[in-house]
Amino acid sequence: MNVTPSGVVRVVVSDRLHAAAFPGHPGTYEVTEPEEVRELLTAAVDGPAGERDDFVCMCRGEFGLVSYDAAGGPVRTVDRHGPLPLLDPALPESIPARHRAAWAAAAPGPLRGYAEGWARGDPPAPGTVTVPPGPVLRWLGTPPGGTVDAARDVARVAPLALLDAVATDELARAVRTADAAGLDGAVEFFASEHFTARHPKKRRVGATARELLLRHARTRRPGHAAVLERRVLLAAEDRIRR
């Protein structure tokens, strides 16, 4: 394992400055790439005067940094005050911008331009991008692997925003031809508030698609099965429960 000189292999970042303002940016994420860990540790040490090991601030700074060793034990906790360019998602050279750019580069070809807009924090306006729902469901069902990095939230929000504009009948047709990853994404969408927010008349799907969703959820996503049973409506007499 490539370990930093301090023995730190992972840093958990709490971003209290940008999370609410930058589209799809998480409040908490991890940094695990060794060179990025080194950069971040150096930037944290080079903080404003007064941030010393023997000084404990009673307020929370703009960033919280908790570092861990290879055994999973915490090494140090720092509340960093003031802007930190290395963690600003709007700056292309920052760590979160790198994570998001890597996520966008891995997007399916027809969706790459759309993903790049999200990666820059400039998502296209709703309805301006039209893509068949099948690839979008597979994209949602195949999130970035590995650690919980700064692209985690945008990897979920960007596909959901595309699916919001798709009619339920078209989504149901995509479900009937979906592979395992597509069904993972379909279960994610149909169980989400994005689908639940639709008018009840727009939450009805055919028996085949509904059964495929429920069968896949019971096997692969059991936590979503009960939600799907309540929210994906089949017949007019179905009881609507939220």
Could you characterize what this model shows?
It is a single chain. By secondary structure, the chain is of the alpha+beta class. Helices cover 41% and strands 11% of the residues. It is built from ten helices and four strands, in the order ββαββααααααααα. It has a four-stranded antiparallel sheet with strand order 2-1-3-4.
Question: Strand share of the residues?
Answer: 5-15%
Alpha-carbon distance between the termini?
47 Å
Cα gyration radius (Å) = 21 Å
Overall 3D geometry? elongated
State the helix count: 10
What is the typical, i.e. mean, pLDDT?
A: 88
Q: What is the N-to-C succession of helices and strands?
A: EEHEEHHHHHHHHH
The side-by-side strand order for the widest beta sheet comes to 2-1-3-4
Structural class: alpha+beta
Biggest pleated sheet: 4 strands, antiparallel
Short characterization:
With 242 residues, the chain is α+β, with helices and mostly antiparallel strands.
What brief labels describe this structure?
single chain; 242 residues; alpha+beta; four-stranded antiparallel β-sheet; 10 helices; elongated; disordered C terminus
How is this fold's topology laid out?
Blueprint: E1 8-15, E2 28-31, H1 34-45, E3 63-69, E4 74-80, H2 95-105, H3 112-119, H4 133-141, H5 152-163, H6 168-176, H7 180-190, H8 193-196, H9 207-220, H10 222-231
Antiparallel strand pairs: 1-2, 1-3, 3-4
Helix pairs in contact: 2-3, 4-5, 4-7, 6-9, 7-9, 9-10
